[in-house]
Amino acid sequence: MNEILEIFKIPLLTAFFTIILGWFSIYVKNKLNRLDRKENEKLQKQREVFDKMLSLYSRKLSSNGVDNNWLQDFEIISKDLVIWANDKVLYEFSQYSKALIENNKDYEIYFAKTIEAFRKHIGYKNRFNKIKPQDFLNVFKAGWQKEL
With contact defined as beta carbons under 8 Å apart, do 111 and 57 qualify? Predict the structure, then answer.
């Protein structure tokens, strides 16, 4: 009997560890898929907030001021940014908001810095350091033919 156990000992241990390793690899794969799915959902939401923020700023440029609808949308986008933006984006947006409240003409450059930070956060790279905050303003203003 001991001889039979000795013969099957190594194959049984191999089979046992193969099954355990298989279960473990399935568990890890499922866990990584869930994390990846959550990260993709988060990135998608961040991009939606970024798009809303850009649309809101574009409306401000096109209307020579703000109306009640713009203020309501600004409140909503501010809340979304608190939830979805990283610290750098939130800081730059707070500087933009502060400049708006204080009627500081530098509000535009703060907004451009917010765009720059948001783009970096969602994965865009300024590989050659050629794009400066003023470039984002130029893109927006060119469409509305405003003085740069």
Answer: yes
Q: Buried b / exposed e across 122-134, counting CB within 10 Å, b at 16+?
A: beeeeeeeeeebe
* Structure-block tokens of residue 95: 């500087």
CB 118 within 8 A of CB 108: no
Given CA atoms 57, 61, 62, 64 in this order, what sign does their dihedral have? positive
Asked if residue 91 has pLDDT above 60, the reply is: yes
Where does residue 136 fall: left (phi above 0), alpha (psi -120 to 50 degrees), or beta otherwise? alpha
| Widest distance between CA atoms in the chain | 95
Average pLDDT of 97-101?
89
Cα–Cα distance for residue pair 111/117, rounded to 1 Å: 10
What is the CB neighbour count within 10 angstroms for residue 138?
12
Global pTM reads: 0.68
